Amino acid sequence: MTVRPSVRVEAKDFDVGAETASLRVGRTDIGAIVTFTGLCRDEGGRLAALELEHYPGMAEAEIRRIADAAIERWPLTGLTVIHRYGKIPPGGNIVLVIAASAHRQAAFEAASFLMDFLKTKAPFWKKEHLVSGESSGWVAARDEDDTAAGRWSAI
Amino acid sequence: MTVRPSVRVEAKDFDVGAETASLRVGRTDIGAIVTFTGLCRDEGGRLAALELEHYPGMAEAEIRRIADAAIERWPLTGLTVIHRYGKIPPGGNIVLVIAASAHRQAAFEAASFLMDFLKTKAPFWKKEHLVSGESSGWVAARDEDDTAAGRWSAI
Amino acid sequence: MQIRYFAWVRERVGLEQEELDLPAGIQTVGDLINHLKGLDDNHAAAFADQEAVRVAVDQEHADADRPLAGAREIAFFPPMTGG
Amino acid sequence: MQIRYFAWVRERVGLEQEELDLPAGIQTVGDLINHLKGLDDNHAAAFADQEAVRVAVDQEHADADRPLAGAREIAFFPPMTGG
Predict the structure, then answer these.
(1) ipTM score here?
(2) pTM for the predicted model, two decimal places
(3) Assigned fold of C2-77
(4) A75-108, pLDDT tens digit by residue?
(5) Which Pfam families match (chains C, D) (predicted)?
């Protein structure tokens, strides 16, 4: 069975429990579900919000490419990726990855792989809004994220 | 801040969404939450249920030891571990690990570490009940699980 | 001393637990296993494949050379298959 | 050809997108960047640190030597910081 990833790019919030439930409903072949939720931190009280800009169309297409690469690499029984855009306050959800498989290693690795490539390949950009009312500008890309993506052979 | 892991060994089912919500409520310092849910598979329709036996007292103590080792090793902002016992049908929940951190790598690694050691150190044993009405006996420990636990230096 | 059994070790012994007064000379977990094997056929069957049996002393994993001095509860069980 | 800009590249150019008729001789993404830099100060500022600007051709990541033949939409943006 070929798994079709569920990919969404949207402003509205997601519910991890509901998304997990919809992925597993009626299934008895799933042994492991790994979810990753990325949240907005307040950076020690400094940050009022993150504003996520994205490239509509390419964002969905690029996430789908990464998801398809994961499905080709690991024996997944389900895969959901949701990435939000717009203004997100501290404590709010930014991104969700759910990977399901018969075995735990595949689920862990696929979710980690998805996140490494979302960080470095999906066309989203974060701007910081400070509690002082100013914007401190665009978040710089981190070398560690390129290093993390480099752990996996190229997709 | 020292994180205190929430550890429960119980027969009753858990709710991933509710457990995640309770771990993150009111927090603005969490950047990443990884959940692992282990489910009962029907093994291609062969299995009617898994029956989990455990060693009361030691099960909680051993999980707490593993959780404390994870908290010492990674900068976690929250950690929840729930392991069920009793009879669990295909599609049902067996185990839940939730690891929260400022950054994704710590959350992924801590959750994976917890699962590797739960598999090999926590005193639980699975017995298979078949749809034929027979029991096919106790699930054998897998060498792969020892290998997986061996990836981490001893705890 | 309280002895507890789990999973197929429990099924082979035919008991969940038993209280035993140990004869002198039993110093370690290994000594205890040898003593239990001599009790009856059920115990002998449980420990026939001794490599496959794991031990906990007072609810902590232990090896065969672990001394029993001061211990209250010894448990025997197969390799764990939880998670 | 449709040109799109995102994040600080967009802010420096001062435009979200623009439709440009390209002069002959512009064959690759690299040629296009050189052309854009010459348009005005805003474009020059956006591409001043050219190494920091990423490119997509028809919504797929591309390099400077990517030919433009057949392309409809070219986008310029900083390294991605989603996830």
Answers:
(1) 0.95
(2) 0.95
(3) Ubiquitin-like (UB roll) (3.10.20)
(4) 999 999 999 999 999 999 999 999 999 999 999 9
(5) ThiS
